[in-house]
Amino acid sequence: GIIFGRDYSTGMPVLEWCETEGTMWSKCWRDKNICHKDFPKEFPLPFPDLWSMFRILQDLGLGISCRTDKAGCEKAFKDSCNDGASGCASMCVHRASGQVSKSTCRQQCEMICAHAANFSMFCSLLTPPRTIGWFCPVGCADNSNPDTCPTGTICEPPPVLHASHPVATLDFAMQLYKQGQGTTRRNARYGALLASKNKSVNVMTLLYNTSAVHAVPAFVNLMSNALKEAASGPGSVISTFNDPMPRTRTEQFDRLVSGVVDL
Q: Using one digit for the tens of pLDDT, what is the confidence trace for 129-159?
């Protein structure tokens, strides 16, 4: 069925292309060559590219959205960086709902507001009808916005997934997701094993949480022991594949903040 806006009827994502041909300034061209391309030297911003900047600024609560244009961009930074970044810090604390300390928000906001002049240069590029969604049509996919891709479509194929039982694996993952809703980080799951059979071959699927450094080796060891115990004799072969899930926005924010603190 439809999960997170994408069709998973067969257990694997059913891919639809944003457009059939990509020419200069087309949606897919803009997404690859502007949204996800390193910022040029004349824009010395503390982010690798536009999409990374957009996601972090959204998480801080700066009032930036896919439909933000030049006026909205300038207002967002003006409101956020006035009075020593206090506006940004207040929005960050409110947005984090207690999960991020005020001092961490303050430090992150001061780092961002120190580049206010460079952000103003960026805002100047958002002349109507250009918006952030115009530059990032895939991440800002919206069926009601002709400047972006339709929801659930792609411009580049994703990495190959090695799910032996796609339907069973997806069903298992969704059950884990439902069980985890509302769970505190202290009680979070860091891995799970799914045992199934594919054409008379026993298959073990490992799902793991990338925020736990030792989750993979611990669960691979558990899985390997189980497979070995069930093997009928010597010569059995164990193959593993690593297909990490994308980081959540909170994890991306924590990772960036940790990097800034380390500096």
A: 899 999 999 999 999 999 999 988 899 887 7
Structure tokens at 22: 């990509």
pLDDT reading at 254 higher than 90: no
Question: Rounded CA gap, 165 and 131, in Å?
Answer: 41
Q: For the whole prediction, is pTM greater than 0.85? A: no
What DSSP element (H or E) covers 192?
strand 191-198
Degrees to nearest 5, angle at CA 258 with 252 and 263: 130
State how far the Cα of 224 lies from the Cα of 129, in Å rounded to an integer: 56
C-alpha 254/C-alpha 226 separation (Å) is 35
**Cβ–Cβ under 8 Å, residues 64 and 76:** yes
Q: What is the pLDDT of residue 5?
A: 62
pLDDT tens track for 43-81:
677 788 889 888 888 877 888 899 999 999 999 888 888
Which of 54, 116, 115, 110 is closest to 261 using CA atoms? 110
> CA–CA separation, 62 vs 50, rounded Å?
15
CA 92/CA 56 separation, integer angstroms: 11
Which residues, including other chains, have CB under 8 Å from residue 35's CB and lie 6 or more apart?
A: 49, 50, 51, 135, 136, 137, 138, 139
